[in-house]
Design a protein that fits this description.
78% helix, mainly alpha, 301 residues
């Protein structure tokens, strides 16, 4: 596909991408602020990976999104074209374009495996040490960093089809398979359980598992068009690149980091409460003992 000579086709997509990146940035900052504010209700061990996912999505909006805009504008809109300094700077820029998005996807795999462990081994899951979660977060970052480093060193010596097949499409396919299998096993376990438990902790864990399932499904729906389109472009001779389809896939790809705060507000009562307190500056009374409350409030109770 040849670049468009007119800016009339580039500017609308440029505006959409800028608005999307700003929304990702703002919503995930609010999400992190709510989790920090509601420490007693939201910052449990089971939510550490969700908080980390919000941090990664924040980096998508702050780093990966602007780099995507800059690279795509240079590629398709020649009126804003300019020369890069070196080949290595271009490779490093491309690495950061995908680093945080792949980290977000790896984080979703970790969440699905953590929910699988919580469902099949609930007693052991309660006593998981803090260092285990820290080690998981380190692994979440190591996998995409190694993938991006391999891409940088293989770019000049391996065909781009090989890189796309093994470092992009295969990574997506393994991630999709891992997440789907984990939640299928969770659903089978919950449905086939003969001795359901109804205490508050079990209900809270199941609610969190349901939230993680929705987050993962929505994220996969955002990632899947990009995976299919990349496979079509690199592995098929009949597929052609269309500017508008390409940009729509990119908007949907970045939308993965936008929808999570919306899902949290719909699914997590503690998150909604913290959000309202943050917006309307309502004092948080959840950690105050009843003896410390004003007498008029106790008389009303």
């Amino acid at each position: 596909m040849q670049p468009f000579s007119s800016a009339s086709q580039c500017i609308p997509w440029l505006v959409v991408l800028i608005i999307e990146c700003l929304a990702i940035l703002i919503l995930n900052i609010i999400t992190i602020a709510v989790f920090v504010k509601k420490k007693r209700q939201l910052q449990r061990r089971s939510t550490h990976l969700i908080i980390h996912l919000a941090i990664v999505d924040l980096l998508v909006g702050a780093v990966s999104g602007p780099l995507q805009i800059e690279i795509r504008v240079v590629r398709f809109c020649p009126q804003w074209n300019y020369r890069r300094e070196t080949t290595w700077s271009r490779h490093i820029s491309f690495a950061f374009v995908h680093l945080f998005s792949f980290t977000s996807l790896t984080n979703l795999i970790a969440i699905s495996l953590e929910r699988l462990h919580a469902t099949f081994c609930p007693f052991r899951h309660r006593f998981v040490r803090k260092w285990v979660h820290r080690a998981i977060i380190i692994v979440i970052w190591l996998i995409p960093i190694v993938r991006e480093a391999a891409q940088i060193f293989l770019w000049e010596i391996v065909d781009v089809v090989v890189i796309a097949t093994y470092l992009y499409i295969l990574f997506y396919a393994v991630s999709l398979f891992s997440i789907c299998v984990s939640y299928i096993l969770i659903i089978i376990k919950v449905r086939c359980s003969r001795h359901p438990q109804f205490h508050s902790r079990t209900k809270r864990e199941r609610k969190l598992t349901g939230t993680a399932l929705i987050v993962s499904l929505v994220s996969l729906l955002c990632f899947l068009p990009g995976m299919i389109y990349a496979a079509c472009l690199h592995l098929s001779f009949t597929c052609f690149m269309n500017f508008h389809i390409y940009m729509a896939v990119l908007v949907l790809f970045l939308g993965n980091s936008l929808v999570n705060p919306i899902i949290y507000s719909l699914r997590m009562p503690g998150f909604r409460e913290g959000l309202l307190q943050l917006v309307y500056r309502v004092p948080d009374l959840s950690g105050i003992a009843p003896a410390n409350l004003p007498l008029r409030n106790l008389s009303r109770a």
